[in-house]
């Protein structure tokens, strides 16, 4: 991004900047914002550990980042963002991510935002989620191929894992459903002496009880890439 572009960016008001960013897909906004605000740096912790964790939303990424990087988090930024920033080929790093059952993740994201999300920045999303009578109403009315890219927690997981060529090129992809087992496997293979913080698992209700035939099929259609790529079933 050229200096001229960054200077032009500064000429816009905060609301104008927010509007321009909103025209991008949600998983692209964070990286572009950092670049335009001159805050885009390759994390030192990645170099220290030689590990890159891609923080997939609603897949225990906060706890994973806290364990790997001494409590630091770098946000839900896609692999291609780091690929662009790194002065070294990403092949020298061990690249990892954890993914989640797409049906369970969609319900978790809905409930998370409905309950307030990350606070002030998610107020409008909390208001929107609470405007629907139920999860079924939300899926039937709002969730579609365009809207899933407007909120980062609904963006397909594969989009976070793609490199600049659109390929998934990670060294390890674990599952949220087997989080502790997968993390212990990583610890052993990488020689890590770290502990995974206690995970807040949310509602104990089985997601399958919430879905109807219609919502199951619609979510399955919208997240088909994730389902196929990561081998999930309802």
UniProtKB/TrEMBL annotation:
It is a single-pass type II membrane protein. Keywords: Glycoprotein, Golgi apparatus, Membrane, Transferase, Transmembrane, Transmembrane helix. The keyword Coiled coil does not apply. One of its GO terms (biological process) is carbohydrate biosynthetic process. Its main location: Golgi. Coiled coil: none annotated. Gene3D superfamilies: P-loop containing nucleotide triphosphate hydrolases. SUPFAM superfamilies: P-loop containing nucleoside triphosphate hydrolases. It is found in: Golgi apparatus membrane. This is Sulfotransferase family protein. PANTHER family: CARBOHYDRATE SULFOTRANSFERASE. It comes from Cycloclasticus pugetii. GO terms for cellular component: membrane. One of its GO terms (molecular function) is sulfotransferase activity.
């Amino acid at each position: 991004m050229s200096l001229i572009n960054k200077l032009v960016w500064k000429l816009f008001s905060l609301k104008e900047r927010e509007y321009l960013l909103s025209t991008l897909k949600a998983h692209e906004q964070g990286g572009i914002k950092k670049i335009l605000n001159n805050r885009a740096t390759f994390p030192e912790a990645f170099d220290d550990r030689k590990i890159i964790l891609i923080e997939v939303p609603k897949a225990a990424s906060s706890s994973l980042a806290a364990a790997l990087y001494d409590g630091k988090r770098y946000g839900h930024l896609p692999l291609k963002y780091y690929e662009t920033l790194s002065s070294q080929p990403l092949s020298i790093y061990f690249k990892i991510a954890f993914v989640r059952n797409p049906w369970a993740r969609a319900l978790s994201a809905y409930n998370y935002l409905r309950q307030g999300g990350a606070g002030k920045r998610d107020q409008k999303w909390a208001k929107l989620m609470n405007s629907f009578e139920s999860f079924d109403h939300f899926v039937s009315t709002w969730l579609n191929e365009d809207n899933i890219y407007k909120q980062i927690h609904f963006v397909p997981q594969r989009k976070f894992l793609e490199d600049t060529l659109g390929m998934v090129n990670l060294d390890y992809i674990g599952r949220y459903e087997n989080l502790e087992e997968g993390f212990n496997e990583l610890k052993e293979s990488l020689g890590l002496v770290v502990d995974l913080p206690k995970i807040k698992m949310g509602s104990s209700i089985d997601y399958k009880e919430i879905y109807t035939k219609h919502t199951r099929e619609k979510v399955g259609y919208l997240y088909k890439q994730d389902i196929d790529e990561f081998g999930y079933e309802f």
